[in-house]
Amino acid sequence: MRSVLSGIAYRVARALGLTSSATATRNGAMIQAATTVAETTPCNARPSDWLGRRLNLLLPSINARHYFGGIHTAVQLYRALEKHFPATRIVLVDSAPDAAALERFGDHTLVDCAADSTANHQIVPFNDRYGRTLPVGAEDCWLTTAWWTTYSAQRLAAWQQQQFGVAGRLINLIQDFEPGFYPWSSQSALALGTYRPDQDVAVFNTGLLADYFELQGLAYQRRFVFEPTLNDGLRQALADVRANPQPRQRRMVVYARPSTPRNAFELLCEALREWGWSDPASARWEVVAAGELTADLDLGPFTLRALGKLDLPAYAQLLATSAIGVSLMISPHPSYPPLEMAAFGMGVVTNRFANKDLAEFSPNIHSADQFSPEVIAAAIAREVAAWEGRQMQHTSLMATDHAFLAERSFDEIAGQVAVLQ
Amino acid sequence: MRSVLSGIAYRVARALGLTSSATATRNGAMIQAATTVAETTPCNARPSDWLGRRLNLLLPSINARHYFGGIHTAVQLYRALEKHFPATRIVLVDSAPDAAALERFGDHTLVDCAADSTANHQIVPFNDRYGRTLPVGAEDCWLTTAWWTTYSAQRLAAWQQQQFGVAGRLINLIQDFEPGFYPWSSQSALALGTYRPDQDVAVFNTGLLADYFELQGLAYQRRFVFEPTLNDGLRQALADVRANPQPRQRRMVVYARPSTPRNAFELLCEALREWGWSDPASARWEVVAAGELTADLDLGPFTLRALGKLDLPAYAQLLATSAIGVSLMISPHPSYPPLEMAAFGMGVVTNRFANKDLAEFSPNIHSADQFSPEVIAAAIAREVAAWEGRQMQHTSLMATDHAFLAERSFDEIAGQVAVLQ
Hints:
Two copies of one chain form a homodimer.
Chain A: H1 2-15, E1 22-26, E2 29-33, E3 45-47, E4 54-59, H2 69-82, E5 87-92, H3 99-104, E6 109-110, E7 121-125, E8 134-136, E9 140-144, H4 147-164, E10 170-174, H5 186-193, E11 201-205, H6 207-215, E12 222-226, H7 235-243, E13 249-256, H8 265-278, E14 286-291, E15 297-298, E16 303-306, H9 312-321, E17 322-326, H10 336-343, E18 347-351, E19 365-368, H11 373-389, H12 411-418
Parallel strand pairs in A: 3-8, 4-5, 4-9, 5-7, 6-7, 9-10, 10-11, 11-12, 13-14, 13-17, 14-16, 17-18, 18-19
Antiparallel strand pairs in A: 1-2, 15-16
């Protein structure tokens, strides 16, 4: 009894932010340290009257400012799975949905977690969950993607075991190796701990990532893999380039995303400076930054021109008229920009990582085999010389039968995954 | 010529801090981002008149407030190598030595990098290196340990290649997998880039770490390994415990180092709370924190008592009288506390990581096979029950012939490494 009551007291204290921070010293300096991992704030359940199978997509948020590739892909898989389940819910653990987000899910009903709704398609905000519980039935099953949504769903599934005698089933849509998003730490350890290759079903965003997991000893018994495909919004522009190829401008496009450490913005800048100082040809080239830069950047030998976040038509135009792309990604995940640049016939400089070598994806891609400004700069200089040597004519557009140019559908994977739930 | 002059201009600008930061937006918010990696500020060289082999130890600092285990171990290896070289230098790249530090190296001469000294044992501050160069001869070779000292030495070695026709040789004392100290990023990539298994000699601090490197595809052709041994300052206390074993107090010692992410302080606190709420026996136990905590910490079900940084006699007394130790390390490196606790007969709860399972090191160690507060809490509860079940008698002290209790000497490794230089 003590443990139950105390546990409640703790959850109350935690939700109120009363859990203490630690006072410590390092090198004589005082520091205040967290004693909890915010991402793991408990999601508690109560028995639901709901009977039958129900798919629950746990997401941090569906609001536009959080709605990036990873969340969009999770929603696509959820939509493909919907037809296999009599009922579905989207449970939001970080941010409540705003009006615009709800509009995008017009076929869903907004439900407060206090209600035990029988609506067939629900959106349940569960970000503000102090003293609140989510109604969970015996056959609720879970689709997750960010590691902390997986963490919560795994504990809800364990609660189902206690309550109903059978643990809930879980589909983990794995879109990167998330422990790599942190230094080795509590967070990286907890993220790593959410990989349960003997228990959960894994759906991997790319075979490269799936293979990396196996290399790390994380061999999922039940795994599915899908590969990246070209954004539909770029297809017409690619067809146009194919129909009417033109020499490219002496323009280099770099993917500059300083807010995402694995895009290695500092290393990109160091490599560009090194290239600028060491390659006299650099004076003849324009270098532009797609991504997040909003002000031009003086890199010493040249100015990196900021294009900010481009809409799809502007991005397509850039891909169709530029010669060279530079895009780094410190992860086994390929990321889209180098693939898109290669599809449009650009010469691409990127990096290898573990089992990833995008040169296997396209002959237009050069993967630097060492992480140093000098090696990346030398790869850029070779691309520059090659383009100038052939009077700015591109070598090859991506073959029309390349897997990257196929239409994506989650229907097949969804059908296979659904029978396991 | 352009590139040389521009390069100088860049180095001047960089040293003056004039290299620009980038302006970007994410989710509509403005951010300022670095465009350089501070750790890689160039170390430039000029030809030295020095002839003959000279060992150069590159270190961030030798001042007391930076003088932790890793730097001490590097100095021990340097001292063992000294006798194989006619001359040696210690080059400090982050902090100039203070008077107390210089006193500890009384056989060394403090030398300004502007001088081309012939002193046989030099200390050269090179932290403030704007517009300055280090005199380097053809047979200067390099001993490094933190990744950015390796990064600098590799570029000095490449300069030797250009200047003298032969690249400098490098011994990399590898004491952890340093890319793991960062999220996947420019820093992690550059740290990873300093591992050159085909070129450099590696001296690994523990076989576990060496094996982890091989698992990551980093198989050094020339590698040496040494294993951890008990600190000499703890040996008498262990002998005393062996001579006069006593029942242990109901005391748990946790290794609390919030300033070091890989010690997973938040996860430790979460696990302790979970144990406190779920195990009624917790009310009978005292839980104390060795490491950095300076104020007691309310963990909910109990208070974690702060012991701060202990001197060796106090630490030895704690090891000799306590029953259970909890020490996490999110790294393949074993770290000392769990080994020391096990040597003294304590029951130890720690974590596995990749190829690391310290249960192979001592039967007193339990390595949790999953990163979750629940799993670690359950391991603690089992230890508590086991100690109470045997009336607080310890099971076994470490056997006197255990490798951890051998005397450490770097003489053998130094002899083998020196002939490769």
